[in-house]
């Protein structure tokens, strides 16, 4: 059985469309690291969850990437939504010539074993200094800054991306930045759940993962 680490049962229902009945919800509150890449955040969560579940897990992390802002807010999307709000994000984007953006999701899978890196990447926990405090990082040796070492758990990563544009808020559905993200003329907040799932970044990542997992 595959554990989907989430508190949102809607995500599990979406996953079952790709994974049949092999996936169950695993409610586990892991400490989320701050990083500039979705993959690093999801991989850290997958390792923590695997150790807690003692079985195969998937963790997802998602964000809104605005081209005019070099991909910001990206992995910091939840924080920006809470502190700034979607209306202000639209107002900041409105004066820009380029309104293009993308929603991205990375699904991280961990089962305690190793993987081949092709065609999807494997995070082997070799980033340097990410979890060290700023005061400690300057004085740390190279060996001290390598995370995990020989005991690191490899994590397989699968990315889904859907392109769109930032627009004035429209629609009553969805959540997060859905009202200001337009795809093919319709905001995510104007779509039904089934319509959104059919084109969503999470669905695209799940489709990639399910194809690979069927051969695992």
Notes on the structure:
The chain is of the alpha+beta class. It has one domain: Maf protein, CATH 3.90.950.10. It contains eight helices and nine strands. It has helices at residues 9-19, 38-53, 77-83, 86-93, 134-137, 142-145, 193-199, 201-213, and strands spanning 2-5, 23-26, 57-66, 73-74, 100-110, 122-123, 155-166, 181-183, 186-187. Strands 1, 2, 3, 4, 5, 6, 7, 8 and 9 form a nine-stranded mixed sheet that branches. Strand 8 and strand 9 form a beta hairpin. It is globular. The two termini are 13 Å apart. Residues 128-150 have low confidence and may be disordered.
Tell me, what is the CATH class? Alpha Beta
How helix-rich are the residues, as a percent range? Answer: 25-40%
Q: Care to count the β-strands?
A: 9
Strand content: 15-25%
Overall tally of structural domains: 1
Overall shape: globular
Q: List low-confidence stretches.
A: 128-150
CATH architecture: Alpha-Beta Complex
Task: Quote the average pLDDT.
Answer: 86
Class based on secondary structure composition and strand pairing: alpha+beta
What is the H-and-E element order? EHEHEEHHEEHHEEEHH
| CATH topology description | Maf protein
Rounded to the nearest angstrom, the radius of gyration is 18 Å
**Largest sheet properties:** 9 strands, mixed
Cα distance spanning the termini: 13 Å
GO molecular function: nucleoside triphosphate diphosphatase activity
Family: Belongs to the HAM1 NTPase family.
Keywords: Hydrolase
Biased composition (Basic and acidic residues): 121-138
